[in-house]
Amino acid sequence: MKNKRSKSTHGCVCCRKRKVKCSETLPECAQCVRNSYICVWAEGVVPKSSLNEFQLQKKQTSPFVFVYGNKRQKREIQSAKRTENETVSIKSVDRVRRQDQLDDAIFRKYVASLCSQSALLGFGLGFPGLFSPKDAYIYDAFVNGFMVAVSTQLTHERLQPGAVFIPHGAANPWLLDVFYACGAAFLAANRKDMRELAESRMAKVMGQFQQIVVRSSFDSDNKWLVVALLSLALREKFYGLDGHRTVLFLKMVFQLIRNWPKTRLANSRHSEGLPEDIRSVVCEQTWLLTPIERTLVESYAYNYSIIGLVLDQKSQILLDSPFEVFEELQPLLDQQLYKCPAPWMNNPVMGAALPAFELASKAGWLQLHYPFDESLRHQAIALLRHAKYFVPPVLPPEVRFNQPKHVCKRLLDSCHAARIVAQGAYILLYKLLYPETLEMESDIQRRISDFISDLEQLSFHSSISAILTWPFSIIGTAIVEKDQRDYMLWRLHNFGCAIKNSCFDIIIEFLNRIWKSGLGWQALLDKTNFDNLFI
């Protein structure tokens, strides 16, 4: 007797009404996407009541808001101990994948709730630029779509990008126009009918850009301008793909941050005549960053770290060397403002991968100067050594055994991300230093296997994939096994579907082109191979 419920259909966990044919990628429920932008699909065997088992609760011993389930469900997973003749049950694997999808969706809903709270602050102040239903629709896409997609870490709620970026739009009509441009770009990433709107909104922003920036650059409090420039840089990842324009945005952001009084104080701690212990007491309260400043600095540091991969040698003169940039930013990035279960929860953008992205930034900079002179070669060798022995942080025992599994999972994702970024830096530097080496080198293929292992540990729609476009592009060139290539493309496609970021599609096109041409790892030696890549 045939089962009445077709196995080829999926039901939306959000509304449980609309059904479409199943595919290997994340299917879309148009109504729920329009309403929340974080809809997740799962088979009908996952009950709608599962969503009610997740609540936003505050731990009594910590100011941090966690997401976890009150009822702990036991996953039906086969034992890892199998004999050679035993096979893995497809049903068990699918069930784990569906649970991961649900967990990922709940995390995005948690981030969306923080973003919505921040948006309410703006509504209380009037929102001078919110005039029409279309504006409200696009603004909703910015709050519940764009900002959720760029919030990758489980961090303190006051450090979340949404909590930092969104409130500034309430008092500034031009910044609100920037938010509209970002929301429209988010919608246009997967909808061709929205592309004209995205372009018109961006044209409106850029039409006033020069006048606004010149007039506001010297304001005593220009953090709203930093928010605007970083939002525009992030907007390019969803729809725009103008790398040169992004470089200009980041250059202006760094100049603004560099002129903050606190930045100057932080970099003058080693002033003449004061012992180190006295200087720390005198200066600590003076240059300690606010949560807003801390998030803005790290958002800049991340975007700056990865932009070198897509720069050409003409554009590189617009940005300062990362060897100088990170030396200036280090006193700011080292600050831990809150006592969190894991130290890297004070890093709202890069999390545990913050030191790995510094390696990536410097490796990308050296790639711009290939072939090396003697001085650059010594720098590359030193960086290669750091990347080779890079050890990501581990989950503290008190977190592993006392915190809910959903919290542990998000924090572990950050550790896996750190290792993936370091592997990318190692593979890039190794090729630059030893260009004649083939990708079949045992050390390289061992690292590819380690990368695949870390990739498998990331949940199906992990939000942290949004910051891993740089290592994905680098490591992918050195993959030679067909099953590993297929697996990576499959993961990239599903990451892109979940986050709605067009960068993943561009990386897929880039890797397919590199593999088909036979270039493979050799592509890292010629920057022209990256001309059409944007991450």
Automatic annotation (TrEMBL):
Q: Where in the cell is it found?
A: Nucleus
PROSITE patterns found in the cross-reference section: ZN2_CY6_FUNGAL_1, ZN2_CY6_FUNGAL_2
Recorded hits in InterPro entries, A to Z, give: Fun_TF, Zn2-C6_fun-type_DNA-bd_sf, Zn2Cys6_DnaBD
MF terms (GO), sorted A to Z: DNA-binding transcription factor activity, RNA polymerase II-specific; zinc ion binding
Q: Tell me the Pfam families matching this sequence.
A: Fungal_trans_2 (PF11951), Zn_clus (PF00172)
Keyword terms, alphabetized = Nucleus
- A GO cellular-component term linked to this record: nucleus
Keyword check for Chloroplast, yes or no. Answer: no
Q: Where is the Zn(2)-C6 fungal-type domain?
A: 11-41
Q: Protein name, please?
A: Secreted protein
